[in-house]
Design brief:
Length: 50
């Protein structure tokens, strides 16, 4: 009976850790990074100077 209790406790702990890890990964993937609003390429649209 002691082995059965230990096996059940191990299975429950493993399941809780798996669910916690999955929720943590989902939370990290949903985090939006800070993105600068600076264009990498800009084209001159003004008329050329004389």
């Amino acid at each position: 009976m002691r082995r059965l209790t230990a096996a059940a406790a191990t299975a429950v702990i493993a399941a809780v850790l798996a669910v916690g890890t999955a929720l943590g990964i989902v939370a990290l993937l949903n985090a939006t990074p800070d993105q600068p609003n600076v264009p990498l390429i800009s084209y001159d649209t003004a008329p050329p100077r004389r």
